[in-house]
Predict the 3D structure of the following.
Amino acid sequence: MEKKIRLPLTEENINALKAGDYVYLTGTIYTARDAAHKRMDEALNAGEKLPLDIAGTTIYYMGPSPAREGRPIGSAGPTTASRMDKYAPRLLDLGLKGMIGKGKRSDAVKEAIVRNGAVYFAAVGGAGALLSKAIVSSEVVAYDDLGTEAIRKLEVVDFPVIVVIDKTGANLYDMAKEKYCRE
Amino acid sequence: MRDIDVSIITDNIKELCIKANHFLSPDMTDALDSACKKEESDLGKLVLNQLKENLEIAGNDMIPICQDTGMAVIFMNIGQEVHFVGGNLEDAINEGVRRGYVDGFLRKSVVSDPIERVNTKDNTPAVIHYNIVPGDKVEITMAPKGFGSENMSRVFMLKPADGIEGVKNAVLTAVKDAGPNACPPMVIGVGIGGTFEKCALLAKKALTRKAGEHSEIPYVKALEEELLERINKTGIGPGGLGGTQTAFAVNVLTYPTHIAGLPVAVNICCHVNRHVSVTL
């Protein structure tokens, strides 16, 4: 089913999303990948505040290529989400509502999604030029020294994603593979 | 002897970095077109059409095909009649990578140490494989490698008794474990034989062979065809979202090995299998 959602994600949005839904997101998302997650985790361990308001937020696992002149960002497709599995449950328990990446998640992440009523979306991996066209602005908001791994605030318009794990824990990767498996 | 100034190597490496990250070779675009026609899943078709559109945007607007513009893997086939002048060859290669990634707006994805992990900010150093060949030419193949798929690659040290069925199981295991993580449709490079490191290098080299071309060894060609068919029956599909097009090609290279061993390496590449060559 095709849906359009204006961010931030609400409980009502999330309740209506089912694994397999094709969704266009509009609004604010934040990028963070390996190094930024490690640093956020260390900040929490040290009792410090996170550099973004995590409650209700959607994080995009992405590190862009540099922008050419006149463009807000370079190529901007998703990175493999499982590398963030170590950190995601803690952020979900703090109120993170949406994650955008690609690839499988651990059982611990799935349980945290269900426990907190969140959602895991996939964007199409390797379509970074296409996806960059749905990003209208990009601003580094934390960890600038990490280069491509810095935390960026992005404004997106009709950013195309697919619901992979919904709040019930249903997983599109498992369901879809079974449907076309001919072994 | 033929003298070649290393500055020419630098210039060519720079251009190859930029070209490889914005334009796929015709064998790969043909493989994508063919998969679009064959895919049975609606969501799979939608993903493949997005990938085609992505390639058009990349080439027209000079936005890298994928934001992971890779670690620069370079095969240098150097004629033994060649004499490099004007500086150190390895420095010249890395200078080409530096200029390609900085001037070409490519992502800097390399850290200087695997544990301390500080970004080198210019994507150097490259991973360079030198091969000395007859003649007075230099052939450079640039294959920037993204790590979504690299991370899903495997080496299996099989026993001789495992035979060809063991090889098939190894490849299918690696592909199924990779699933959506490796950005399917994938290209699978397989190295069989040699030693631990030789089979891995063969698997990497196999990824630079054109998709759709087969081994000249009859049993290897049959193996490539059977594996491709079986991989496409796993149901993983484009983007891992289900479908019949999970891989574009399986490329296998073999090498003599030891009486006690059957090494198998499976180097997985995503649909952005970048490989460009130039001969000087």
Observations:
- Chain A touches chain B through 48 residues (CB under 8 Å).
- The mean pLDDT of chain A is 96.
- Chain A has six helices and seven strands.
